[in-house]
Amino acid sequence: MESIVHKIRFLQDSMGPAEKRIADYILSHTGEILPLSISTLASACGCGDATVVRFARRLGLEGYQEMKLRLAAELSATSTLSAEIQRQDSCLEIFRKRMGEIQSSLAATESVLDPEALDKAAKAIMRSERIVIFGLGNSAAIAQDAAHKFLRLGLCAQSVCDNHMQAIVASHLRRGSVAVGISHSGASRDIVEALRLCKICGATTVAITNYGEAPIVEASDIALFTKSDETEHSILAMSSRIAQLAIFDSIYTYIVLNSDKAARQAIANTEFALQNKKY
Amino acid sequence: MESIVHKIRFLQDSMGPAEKRIADYILSHTGEILPLSISTLASACGCGDATVVRFARRLGLEGYQEMKLRLAAELSATSTLSAEIQRQDSCLEIFRKRMGEIQSSLAATESVLDPEALDKAAKAIMRSERIVIFGLGNSAAIAQDAAHKFLRLGLCAQSVCDNHMQAIVASHLRRGSVAVGISHSGASRDIVEALRLCKICGATTVAITNYGEAPIVEASDIALFTKSDETEHSILAMSSRIAQLAIFDSIYTYIVLNSDKAARQAIANTEFALQNKKY
DNA sequence: AATAAATGAAAATAATTTTCATTTGGAGCA
DNA sequence: TGCTCCAAATGAAAATTATTTTCATTTATT
What we know:
homodimer
């Protein structure tokens, strides 16, 4: 199940001029296609009806009808972002609108995430003998959450959220360790420095950031990018933080699925150990 | 913009028998309507084509076509939860599937969240002279993140993630303070005890949990519920954690929007103070 | 029995798909 | 270079299919 819009973009170059016009038109007027009949669309693109049908078939669909249905489905999935949060909104309305932002940020992150880098990071963490995760401010909570996850798996993980401690810990890492630095801006001085130090000491370094050009990227062996469009009120980069959480969660899940019985046992042990903390 | 399915359910009773059959059929075969032509559907419902058109018009739509488009859009919004995470999935595929879980958990949370309780909690926090947030394990990261947010607003907030400290801090609260306890299960002994103590001391207590019957609810003045369907691999209640984050984010945003200039200035000051921590 | 609402068959309209003749852009060759 | 041939691409129109409208009939209600 793939996105039609993606597919159009992908196949665009292998099309003849008339079909390419259709592709262009749909990509630039995606939202306005739905009410158009095939002949309206065809004449808007200066081509015959048949070409539109062929175009739909090329996308692997039954015909124009199905294309419209699929587009409708996709648009609804994408267009939750419409609503701007307003001053008089109730808290629940804000929640609802935030949901949309979260969703679109996750979708954007999915499209920029490098699949190989992600797998590589997961494998490195799974096999490492020690994992340290650096975060400050905003990102400290994420670092802590990630460490918590990995600890439950029985891995030797630790979050370090104090810039002095980060320097100290970094300087004692070695080959076989993995260091993860989290910084939305990618420009957090202490995090970047710590990661550089880790690299010098031979550890594998992973960066999680929102910006491709950021200093933190150079200090990392593996870079994982989130994506969020910061609007006025998302000063705290809320949705990029959720994308970060989701990245760690995927890595966690990947490790659970790909590790031996021992790791599963470790999870069970954790559960058991926590049982008597509850009513 | 209302849901077609909702509308059908709502209008169902005011319809004649033939239209009601259509309503029944659509409600019980929602997913299978899309490829059907109007006459196929009509004969499946034992009625004429015209009745189907009338049915669509009654829903406020142009005709059968538009109804199908709307249904397609709605279905896609609902049916993201389909994919189970599999052992051989790549990390990115896991990410993609997690996105769906997050989305459906947020939607479920939105539907169980009590709007008044949420506004009440936000107002209590906005006006309080001191805010403490309790979390342990999983929830510690959320508590920390929330405290971080409120601190940026210039509020007197603090996360406490050590059960001794929780008891100590709780015992010193008083009227005008707000205590927030986060526990997915709602049964975390230390959190519940701390919250009880807070209540005795006169503080306003807020609980964030996934279960309506949980002990933590009784210890709270205001209860906010998340909702997540825990499947096999969501042991760590990932998606409920995201719902918790989103709740705090909504509260944060609400406060930003509803407070005076001073709070906005506080945010700006925070940004400024952090500037020289970056490259 | 009178009336209004509901309904479906069939006609009218509209949309989509198929067919097929024409065009277009090379590739091969003298 | 100019020519022929071929395959791919294209659109007009025909054929098919789907949707909508009309209107006579049925059904329920007063």
